[in-house]
């Protein structure tokens, strides 16, 4: 297995997309980065954290307040980006990056490629994974598997080393997202134990914090002028990113943004300072601590302590920061390994899984990989609560059933959600489930999650026949979601307490385990 250069001999493609209005075309990678210098309002970075997010979700609404981009809804109700009056879906952005990677691989191999293994943050929901799948399809790829990034790292680390049941923690702090997962490696077989993350925490947040701190050092007049220019703010963030990377190896880094703003008399003012590592660390301390909190939660969820770990693998560009490594060492009481390629390990793990799948198709033994569900999947109940059906860290593939009493010709409707909150509105809306029974009795609804985290729904009628089921995955309006809560066949806690006395919902069976 060898890495393939995508553009200009580079082995990593910058995840930047720009819309060249003059030529009515999308630019990607280095071309987009170059275009962004003069047209920051036409370029988008960090869209990985927006993939498959609902435009009206609480988190997206919060992010829209501080984002330099204009958010809009795509046809499915997911968040898209509006550039110069045109709305682009995030899946469309990602598909152009995938096409570039696909073309580079085809040029290297000299033949057409049609299949791929795509990697995602472990904390991605079912809907986000579906969006990634759509991106692959738009790029002309048959996506044979979706692999969690921490598991890909563990594959790259353990493959061919003959490890005898080693438990490793993968700490993956990249440009846009953060993942932490515990994985057990036995030979070439892997089993995820616990996973967690934050899809809104990454290197770009460190860049923004440092940029804000640098702007804060300016006099009030020039600072106010600078904050009026989005182009200049982006220039400062670019300079902050360069300085941040330099400060991983040095204690002092220069920042120079010429003609950043003007003084009260209209004279040009440069932003020119020497940044100490301590200045950066002070501005980003809480971000570093958040990664430690997530990591500790991952261990707690599996009832593990740092002493149960054999190795700690640090990947993702931001994991190179000395403050990140020092804080993690304080949390775990041990240093993380830095000999894993922070940029290429995920790609190598994906390639290894792809090779294994081909081997299995040929009747040969491939590696074994068992993932876990990143966050609970359940349904909304009356009153706005959330009832979990499949719990976080459930080993995949998995299936659980919900049995409900129904009347003849009754239509059941409820909202399917994914997340950790007890309130439905604070979780990610996956879609509206609707099914009908032709006779009275019990309806069995099965929630099955595949090995790569995709949800599949099915139902059986009181007669034992397969029920016709509709699952609308496009975003529902607030009014429609409120109606779903009102129509939910599942009572909230208060309703359930009252109904247990009245017998009205006496036929409601409790959720039971995997079949």
Description:
α3 (90-109) packs across α4 (126-138) and α6 crosses α8. The strands form 7 sheets. The chain has a 5-stranded mixed sheet with strand order 14-9-10-11-15. It has a 5-stranded antiparallel sheet with strand order 17-16-19-20-23, covered by helices on one side. With 515 residues, it is α+β, with helices and mostly antiparallel strands. The chain has 13 helices and 23 strands. The longest helix is centred in the middle third of the chain and has 25 residues, at 277-301.
List its salient traits:
alpha+beta, single chain, 33% helix, five-stranded antiparallel β-sheet, five-stranded mixed β-sheet
Give a summary of the structure in a few sentences.
With 515 residues, this protein is an alpha+beta fold.
Secondary structure topology:
Layout: E1 16-20, E2 25-28, H1 29-38, E3 43-45, H2 58-64, E4 70-73, E5 79-83, E6 86-89, H3 90-109, E7 115-120, H4 126-138, E8 142-148, H5 149-158, E9 166-173, E10 178-186, E11 189-198, H6 203-216, H7 220-226, H8 230-246, E12 252-262, E13 268-276, H9 277-301, E14 311-315, H10 322-332, H11 345-361, E15 369-370, E16 377-380, E17 386-390, E18 398-406, E19 411-418, E20 428-436, E21 441-449, E22 455-460, E23 469-472, H12 478-487, H13 493-502
Parallel strand pairs: 7-8, 9-14, 11-15
Antiparallel strand pairs: 1-2, 1-3, 4-5, 5-6, 9-10, 10-11, 12-13, 16-17, 16-19, 18-21, 19-20, 20-23, 21-22
